[in-house]
Amino acid sequence: MAELQRTLLLVKPDGVQRQLVGRVISRFEERGLKIVGLKLIHADRALAEEHYAVHRERPFFKGLVDFITSSPLVAACLEGPNAIAIVRAMNGATRPHEAAPGSIRGDFAVETAQNLVHASDSPENAAAELALWFRPEELLDYSREIDRWVLAPED
Ligand code: CMP
Q1: Is pTM beyond 0.70 here?
Q2: How many angstroms is it from 2 CA to the middle of ligand 1?
Q3: Which residue range forms the structural domain that includes residue 114?
Q4: For every residue of 8-47, which 3-state class applies, written as one string?
């Protein structure tokens, strides 16, 4: 089996307001990824600014923080083999006009500033972002009956 990874997915305020949370999360469940953390949270500016710290100098930073703190969002921790790359691919390109049809942004979004979802882009960022959004005890270890049909057997 490929390396098991955990990654952060955010369904941003536009996804909650547009009532797309269930459809977005369902896609990842249907793909075979396991939900190991899930919560609705209204992020404050400190959390948003830390999450997007890499964009602090960008002209869109204030608008991005305003947007992400404007309404509740859903934070999820998804686990599976190569989960980081799988979730990024399923989200689609950051700019929705470049996102492939069939991806979440390619199917549901038209604006970069309201592109519905965020996902970690590397193992290092996944670890940092998960630590930012979840306490350790909020991420649950459990097995699923279906995993023998989803995950390759151990050697
Ligand atoms: P996300 O994957 O959450 O990571 C950074 C976010 O910044 C990105 O999705 C967009 O929502 C946002 N973003 C990137 N570029 C722009 C832009 N030019 N204008 C507004 N928002 C942007």
Answers
A1: yes
A2: 30
A3: 4-150
A4: EEEECHHHHHCCCHHHHHHHHHHHCCEEEEEEEECCCHHH
